[in-house]
Design brief:
Blueprint (H helix, E strand, L loop, with lengths): L10 H14 L12 H8 L3 H13 L3 E4 L3 E4 L3 H25 L4 H11 L2
Helix pairs in contact: 1-3, 1-4, 2-3
């Protein structure tokens, strides 16, 4: 897991987004135990409090859960994971379409680009 941060937005939000991608893409498997807060903070070079805040956000989203004395785990709820994956894909798609429209490409030209890239 490589984490890249920019200075424009709060680190914990970027952590949430990047961990979400790792979870919905399967890089962190459903049911997999996460490293401790301290270990994750060391790996990402962030303050443990920042990491804890990001993990709390993921827990609020139900993407991870805590087993009292055993640590934090990725959800095994495939329906929820697919919901987040679809939402993420739609956001990325809409961003691409908006950027292409800003360049004055038509819907047909955008579709043509996508078809060409798929080959």
């Amino acid at each position: 897991m490589n984490f890249i941060f920019d200075n424009d937005r709060p680190i914990y939000i970027q952590l949430v987004e990047q961990l979400q991608i790792f979870i919905i893409s399967g890089k962190i498997q459903p049911g997999e135990k996460l490293p401790s807060v301290r270990d994750l903070a060391l790996k990402t070079k962030v303050n443990p409090n920042t990491m804890q805040k990001a993990l709390a956000e993921l827990e609020d989203l139900k993407l991870i859960y805590t087993e009292r004395t055993n640590g934090k785990y990725v959800t095994t709820d495939n329906k929820l994971l697919n919901k987040f994956k679809s939402k993420y894909a739609k956001e990325k798609t809409q961003k691409y379409i908006n950027e292409m429209k800003e360049l004055n490409f038509t819907k047909e030209e955008i579709i043509k680009f996508l078809k060409e890239e798929d080959k």
